[in-house]
């Protein structure tokens, strides 16, 4: 229920030809904290309404007035504004205007002498739909602004997450490339050394064949490593593509993609990865996004192992089919998440690695990807002295 406060600061156009009545009622209306604009007859009322520039919220009018009567005035006002609430005051109960008042969409009529409580009630009832509508419009506007702000925030986060991921990518490429680059270096050094030190007797057929075979082997080795470097770049490029193409696939594919990208890094830090893949069903996924989620989780485990300087570091990934879905568990044995933190790890910007430039959006983005973009579920639990991230995706 709306209270009397809604009348506060609203503007009423009040048309009444009897000055004494008009003065008395105006005083009362002022007591209700309404602004009142008075007109002596219908003609003046109409002219005030036309020049009011929509500032009038409600019309209160007598019927019998010189020049233009109340109903004629309202008829003309209705041509301009179909909705403005109108209350009629009348000296006696007339039935002739009742039909017309229905046509003119009159909110109420008040008998003279005017009972101010009834007038107040009718004013409130008349204005209520308009105020409610305006409040709704206002709320809607605010909601729209909120939605827009959220969308913008989301975009900024996606960009931040991509930047963070690009930083990751560079460090992972560096890892992946270190070994093949070192091997290329060694092969080319050996070639140069053998060539310059005259190790091959080029005067004999055997010597020439030996040199050809040595060179061919080394060049094959170099070619192999160059292919390896190229493959790494292709893997990363595919992964960082922004297009969202959904395909039906077994979960093994995005899992293997993510391992391809991060496994060298894990191996270099003595982290053992055990894959126990049992799921046979297909799921409909955007591969890049799901790969991203696995990398986020695996990288978090790696971060923790490094932070704790853990021996015997192990990550166990298992997949299984449920009734209408596929479940993936990623467990690491690097210790549990503190109780006071566990409820917040999916929140944006929550990170316990601030001094190491942790952005705290890895898991937030992962949740968006799984729950918003794939209609799945992701959750975490402390178990067996470690942490297990579980993901459930609908099967097709
Ligand atoms: N496997 C895990 N074991 C323990 N704590 C974890 C694990 N995974 C995540 N966390 C906690 O969740 C927090 C949020 O992780 P999230 O990936 O969102 O951000 P971050 O890793 O801190 O930052 P960034 O991903 O940018 O490096 C981490 O700071 C960490 O405290
Ligand atoms: Mg992280």
TrEMBL record:
Limits of the Histidine kinase domain: 172-396
Catalytic activity: ATP + protein L-histidine = ADP + protein N-phospho-L-histidine
Domain of life: Bacteria
Domain Response regulatory as annotated: residue spans: 11-127
EC main group: transferase
Positions in coiled-coil regions: 133-160
Gene Ontology MF terms in the entry: histidine phosphotransfer kinase activity; phosphorelay sensor kinase activity
Protein name (database record): histidine kinase
Naturally occurring in which organism (per UniProt): Halarcobacter ebronensis
Upper lineage: Bacteria, Pseudomonadati, Campylobacterota, Epsilonproteobacteria, Campylobacterales
């Amino acid at each position: 229920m709306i209270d009397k406060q809604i009348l506060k600061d609203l503007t009423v156009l009040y048309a009444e030809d009897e000055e004494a009545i008009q003065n008395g009622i105006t005083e009362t209306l002022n007591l209700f904290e309404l602004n009142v604009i008075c007109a002596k007859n219908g003609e003046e009322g109409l002219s005030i309404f036309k020049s009011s520039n929509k500032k009038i919220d409600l019309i209160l009018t007598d019927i019998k007035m010189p020049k233009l009567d109340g109903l004629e005035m309202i008829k003309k006002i209705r041509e301009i504004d179909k909705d403005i609430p109108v209350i009629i005051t009348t000296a006696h109960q007339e039935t002739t205007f009742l039909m017309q008042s229905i046509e003119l969409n009159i909110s109420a009529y008040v008998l003279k002498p005017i009972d101010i409580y009834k007038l107040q009630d009718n004013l409130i009832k008349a204005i209520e739909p308009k105020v409610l509508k305006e409040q709704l419009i206002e709320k809607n506007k605010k909601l729209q602004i909120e939605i827009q702000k959220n969308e913008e925030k989301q975009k900024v986060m996606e960009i931040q997450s991509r930047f963070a991921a690009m930083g990751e990518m560079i460090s992972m490429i560096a890892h992946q490339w270190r070994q093949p680059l070192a091997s290329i270096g060694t092969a080319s050094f050996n070639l140069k050394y053998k060539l310059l030190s005259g190790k091959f007797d080029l005067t004999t057929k055997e010597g020439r064949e030996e040199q050809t075979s040595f060179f061919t082997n080394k060049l094959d080795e170099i070619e192999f490593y160059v292919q390896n470097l190229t493959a790494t770049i292709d893997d990363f490029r595919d992964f960082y593509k922004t297009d969202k193409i959904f395909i039906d696939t077994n979960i093994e594919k995005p899992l293997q993609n993510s391992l391809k990208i991060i496994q060298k890094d894990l191996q270099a830090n003595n982290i053992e990865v055990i894959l126990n893949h049992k799921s046979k069903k297909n799921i409909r996924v955007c591969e890049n996004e799901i790969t991203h989620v696995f990398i986020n989780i695996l990288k978090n485990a790696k971060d923790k192992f490094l932070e704790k300087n853990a021996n015997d570091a192990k990550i166990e990934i298992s997949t299984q089919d449920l009734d209408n879905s596929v479940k993936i568990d990623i467990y690491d044995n690097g210790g549990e998440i503190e109780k006071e933190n566990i409820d917040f790890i999916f929140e944006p910007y929550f990170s316990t690695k601030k001094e190491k430039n942790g952005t705290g959006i890895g898991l937030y983005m992962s949740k968006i990807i799984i729950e918003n973009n794939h209609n799945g579920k992701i959750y975490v639990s402390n178990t067996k002295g470690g942490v297990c991230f579980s993901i459930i995706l609908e099967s097709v």
